Amino acid sequence: MIVRRAMVRDISQLKHLRLALFSKWGEIDPADKIEKQWFLSSKHDSILKKMIGNQGTMLLVAEDGKKLIGYNLKTVEWFRRKKLKWSFVSTHSQDTEAIQFWEKINYREFNKTFKMKL
């Protein structure tokens, strides 16, 4: 596996990775249902192009052979180089796989968010 900066040629695979992630949240909680077509749209392409081209943003991809298997927007090292004191991430409270991942790399729960269906 290789981790590298994302390039414009990665957009097609990135769109599918992001769709898979956000679809998972929709399966966990109906309030997080997404518009799947948006993730495959040209508007999403434009957003990803801006993220890739922005010097202030570090979008990384994990590549196994020619297949992207993950992505990360900014890394802990990026925060440290910028001399920032804290890095915050969020995930769905029922996404145990993501929670275990963040805890494994030393993130700790510090806040709770509540919702109410109206």
Written account of the structure:
The protein has 118 residues and is an alpha+beta fold. It has helices at residues 11-28, 36-39, 42-53, 76-81, 96-104, and strands at 2-5, 59-64, 67-73. Strands 1-2-3 form a three-stranded antiparallel sheet. Strand 2 (59-64) and strand 3 form a beta hairpin. The radius of gyration is 16 Å and the shape is globular. The termini are far apart. The mean pLDDT is 83.
Q: Top keywords for this entry?
A:
118 residues, alpha+beta, Aminopeptidase, 3-stranded antiparallel sheet, 3 strands, globular
Sequence of secondary-structure elements: EHHHEEHH
What fold name goes in the CATH topology slot of the domain at 2-81? Aminopeptidase
Helical fraction: 40-55%
Strand content: 5-15%
Shape annotation: globular
| Unreliable spans | none
Q: What is the CATH domain class of the domain at 2-81?
A: Alpha Beta
- CATH H-tier superfamily of the domain at 2-81: Gcn5-related N-acetyltransferase (GNAT)
Radius of gyration: 16 Å
Biggest sheet strand order reads 1-2-3
Integer average pLDDT? 83
In brief, what are we looking at here?
The chain is α+β, with helices and mostly antiparallel strands. Helices cover 42% and strands 14% of the residues.
Draw up the topology in text.
Elements: E1 2-5, H1 11-28, H2 36-39, H3 42-53, E2 59-64, E3 67-73, H4 76-81, H5 96-104
Antiparallel strand pairs: 1-2, 2-3
Helix pairs in contact: 1-3
